[in-house]
Amino acid sequence: MHSARDRIEYEQWLEELETIAERLELSTDARSCAMDLFLADVPEDDRSKQAVLAASLYAGSLVAGDGRTQGTVADAADVSRLSIQSRWKDLLEQAGLEPPRW
């Protein structure tokens, strides 16, 4: 659970997350999980926020059983697939979740 202050401070990014989630037709659970993952690890550098947002959407979709490919999320979020690949497992681990071991 994140504070209202966090949601207000990062409102622009959360709106972007919702826009991309809508584009991907993600479930409500996937969106909620992605939002929590993003707010748990918002980078200070604005240049990194879009990549973390995309990785959060990818990981959130996996957790909710609404999985999308890294490439699909990367295209929707306008980041490289490598940006997602290099971040999503760490996001899950930092949230206390165990990433799948495919």
UniProtKB/TrEMBL annotation:
The keyword Protein biosynthesis applies. Keywords: Initiation factor, Protein biosynthesis. GO terms for molecular function: TBP-class protein binding; translation initiation factor activity. It comes from the Archaea. This is Transcription initiation factor IIB family protein. Residues 16-93 form the Transcription factor TFIIB cyclin-like domain. The keyword Protein biosynthesis applies. It comes from Natronorubrum bangense.
